[in-house]
Amino acid sequence: MMTGNSMWMAAALVESRFRDVAFYLTVIASYIGGVSTFRRVELEWKENALNAILAPIVMGFLIGSDLLTLRDSSCRWIPAVMLAYAWGIINSVGSEVTGTLIFVVTGAMIEKSWGHGGRVPSHVILTEMKSLVSNVSPFILVVMVQSF
């Protein structure tokens, strides 16, 4: 998440694509915001943090991102920021609660799954991201319902 977007932001900066630089910077800041939210909520709510606060936030952001993308497929900024924020929380839960990092090699795995080492076109990434989020959202909903 952070490495890939940092590299894409650096490439955009070198190519003077300042709108893209702002996009990647916003996505990175949103991810950090998700991590910060996890830390703050966990400190204040302790045992209830995961079920009462964090799971509904993550579910809301994942579903909200899906709905925005379905409404306007050309909209990328707000859904990406929502996903980054949610994944900041999810990765924090993975590392702090379960003791494992669960999404560290996503970029490498995605690249390998497409069978080439070159740059993946943005329309392919958007399509795959929509598919992933659409598949993950119901799972999170089921986990949330069962946790109450």
Could you characterize what this model shows?
By secondary structure, this protein is mainly α. Helices cover 80% and strands 0% of the residues. It has six helices and no strands. Helix 2 packs antiparallel against helix 3 and helix 2 packs parallel to helix 4. The radius of gyration is 16 Å and the shape is globular. The two termini are 30 Å apart.
Question: Characteristics of this structure?
Answer:
148 residues; mainly alpha; globular
In DSSP terms (H or I, runs of 4 or more residues), the helix count works out at 6
Largest sheet data:
none
The count of DSSP E runs of length 2 or more, i.e. the number of strands, is: 0
Q: Runs with pLDDT <50, length 5+?
A: 107-120
Shape: globular
Q: What is the radius of gyration?
A: 16 Å
Order of helices and strands: HHHHHH
Beta-strand percent range: under 5%
Q: SSE layout and pairings?
A:
Elements: H1 2-14, H2 18-45, H3 49-71, H4 77-97, H5 106-113, H6 122-147
Helix pairs in contact: 1-2, 2-3, 2-4, 3-4, 3-6
